[in-house]
Specification:
Oligomer: homodimer
Strand order of the largest sheet of chain A: 6-5-4-7-11
Number of domains of chain A: 3
CATH superfamily of the largest domain in chain A: ATPase, nucleotide binding domain
CATH class of the largest domain in chain A: Alpha Beta
Number of helices of chain A: 15
Largest interface: A-B, 45 and 45 residues
Keywords (chains A, B): Kinase, Transferase
Distance between the termini of chain A: 32 Å
Radius of gyration of chain A: 24 Å
Organism (chains A, B): Prauserella rugosa
Shape of chain A: globular
Largest sheet of chain A: 5 strands, mixed
Number of strands of chain A: 16
CATH topology of the largest domain in chain A: Nucleotidyltransferase, domain 5
Helix content of chain A: 40-55%
Protein name (chains A, B): Putative NBD/HSP70 family sugar kinase
Family (chains A, B): Belongs to the ROK (NagC/XylR) family.
GO molecular function (chains A, B): DNA binding; kinase activity
Mean pLDDT of chain A: 86
CATH architecture of the largest domain in chain A: 2-Layer Sandwich
Structural class of chain A: alpha/beta
Low-confidence stretches of chain A: 1-16, 416-427
Chain lengths: 427, 427
């Protein structure tokens, strides 16, 4: 094992035998993982903490520097025994991740580098249900193309694209099986994007449900301390992203979290999915507008503008808006209590328009939850508003790509030309 | 590290320094884990597979033999280079685990050794709701006492007791927070049992929800291949045990799985939990008897006898029974579709009376699930009957104790006197 780890200058799966390559690949991630931790890091300290030899760590660090994932920070370590070593820190400035989101009413793109600098961020209104799937995917590809150009202009190479879709996704193939609010069925979006964007085989395209990706973004946010949380999207559709013991619950086929289609109102309206009285027919954005601001139904406002309008009317004390949001809060509480009784999360996080109008829906939802939580006071958890608003899913898209690189640094794109400005950092 | 692993004759946390002890303890589990795998095992083969030195493995095997978890099987390994070694196999015959179950209508006990021999199994009818908690716990302790005597008579020492309760359990303290069908609130059952049974500190007492333990038993059964499953108890109460990616989902406080108290019928009956129209009021055993065999309501039959009576009437073609079970099947499908939409399991396993009458409820439940599963055909999973019937929870109780010993062999009780019959096995 020591030889494989320590082998200098050998890179790529073809350079080292199968098992040794796998070991080196794993150790590369361990070393990068150490350097991601808060605090200062020398090669010697990383060796001590990982249990690898100093020679092995040196070789691995050389590779991480070549891959532009790590850089020497230029400061000297003082007061130690032996020759003072240079300190190491996360670089990541030349590796970028793109997050895309298709929604019923908008398309969004967000590009960041692995040092978490935002390189590009954009959202455009779009009527997803008005056309067949090829048009929104074409539009999304154009957005992505522009974003990739901006990313490259900033001196970064693309590691991958994470795509959020409001529907059921077959994650291994990147195919949207069914997205009721887009009227999509069996859309191989990963393949389409890969072809239109002419992406190389080394660029990951990861497609997932928007609620899953938003939950991942929320879970990974600095403010979060919960390892069990339920994230609820609040857009045209309502879905849940479930994090349990720090892991995303995808279920057997990746189709978990369809809380919006749990029937809660037998005397209710017909849902886009074909059933009657789904939770979504009571608390989706369309229902909220119909209930709290019916004059805005059918206007060209995008979800964020609608959410803002609802908030402003409630703040102005408009009775219809207040009564409508109270009604939304009650049904939201019904839905949340189902998730709480089944999953006992540490907190529920509201996204989308729920987050915008949270002061007007959370108190009623909490009251409903209190009366419905079987475990009583002990299991009642706070209902909080996401700080990420309508950007959560695209953030999650960049997050999964970044995590993939950190988990397996060989996925970082090779050959990034060091721009003059950046090359000084490691000189 | 090598020294700590290889140190011969050193045992127990006090014999080795903290870190070294932890490493040895971990390696003990790794070696035991190898020997648990199917196939033949020599010390040399275990060394090769674990990456530990032969000296280390020899020392660890000596300790596992002393703890009666492993024995030499007496056969010689042929055809290998070097001196032929003796083969090793799981012993476990002197270490026992007890599973206890408190239910609304019965108490049950099951004792097995770690070789999975059943040493004792008993169930007695009991009206849990008729008295305060101390009486059923007293009765349970008497059952356990007899069982422990039988276990000891069979030459085994007790590693621990796993207790299944139909309610919300604070797992770390072994306290039942709330069990609606027993009318229990804040019952420190682990502490009570430990005191009444005079158990030493080295004997584990693990309390958990009955559905959780039944799900663990189902997941660990030889026939099971699913790593995502939902287990539904079918007794007076209805609860779910959730296994996701091979892990039990406990939620933040251990209160997950309360599917029985999801409101499904706003015009329904009041539930023991205080709400109206809970799933349990539609598919609990009381509802089943009321709907399918009302003349049996209030009789002294225990749940298994009631389930059998329902089955016999349905098999005889009695219209009331058939119509009633069909109605149960429909509501069961409503409940299952909630779990499927939220969790997307690979299969749903029915326990308790659901399993007994499964031919008469599953077809209707499947029809309901098909019409309600958002993901359509792709996410519809089979609904199967557990083979463990009413014994699943007690089986899960012994299972968690056994797993604890396998995960950390230092938890196996020391000082088991080898009975004459058993000592021949390792001679």
């Amino acid at each position: 094992m020591g030889e494989a780890n320590g082998a200098p200058k050998e890179r790529g799966p073809s350079a080292v035998g199968g098992d040794q390559a796998a070991v080196r690949r794993g150790n590369l991630a361990r070393v990068l993982g150490e350097i991601r931790q808060p605090g200062t890091h020398s090669r010697a300290a990383v060796a001590a903490r990982t249990g690898l030899t100093k020679a092995t760590v040196s070789s691995l660090v050389t590779e991480l520097i070549e891959r532009r994932l790590v850089r020497e920070s230029g400061r000297q370590q003082a007061g130690n025994v032996g020759r003072p070593g240079r300190l190491l820190e996360l670089d990541g400035g030349s590796v970028a991740a793109l997050g895309l989101e298709v929604n019923a009413n908008y398309l969004a793109v967000r590009g960041v580098d692995l040092a978490e600098r935002v390189l590009v961020e954009r959202r455009v209104a779009f009527d997803g249900a008005a056309t067949d799937a090829s048009e929104p995917v074409g539009e999304l590809a154009r957005l992505a193309e522009d974003a990739i150009a901006q990313v490259r202009g900033a001196g970064a190479l693309l590691a991958g694209v994470g795509v959020a879709v409001p529907g059921l996704v077959d994650v291994p193939t990147g195919t949207v099986r069914y997205a009721p609010n887009l009227l999509w069925q069996d859309v191989p979006i990963a393949e389409w994007l890969r072809r239109r964007l002419d992406l190389g085989a080394d660029v990951t395209v990861a497609v997932d449900n928007e609620a899953n990706l938003a939950a991942v973004a929320e879970f990974g946010s600095e403010a979060n301390t919960a390892s069990n949380l339920v994230y609820l999207t609040g857009e045209t559709g309502v879905g849940a992203g479930l994090i349990s013991d720090g892991r995303l619950l995808r279920g057997s086929d990746g189709f978990s979290g369809e809380i919006g289609h749990i029937p809660v109102d037998p005397s209710g309206a017909r849902c886009g999915c074909g059933q009657v009285g789904c939770l979504e027919t009571r608390i989706g954005l369309v229902a909220a507008v119909r209930t709290a601001a019916p004059d805005l139904a059918g206007t060209a406002l995008d979800p964020e503008e609608l959410a803002q309008a609802l908030l402003e009317r409630a703040e102005a004390g408009e009775p219809r808006a207040l009564a409508g949001l109270d009604e939304i809060g009650r049904w939201l509480g019904v839905g949340i209590s189902i998730a709480v009784n089944l999953l006992n999360p540490e907190k529920v996080v509201l996204g989308g328009y729920f987050a915008t109008v949270s002061p007007y829906v959370v108190p009623t939802a909490m009251r409903e939850l209190r009366s419905r939580a079987v475990a009583g006071q002990a299991a009642i958890c706070p209902i909080t508003a996401s700080a990420f608003g309508f950007t959560a899913a695209a953030r999650g898209g960049t997050g999964v790509i970044a995590e993939e690189v950190f988990r397996d640094p060989w996925r970082a794109p090779l050959g990034a030309e060091v721009s003059p400005a950046r090359s000084e950092d490691t000189a």
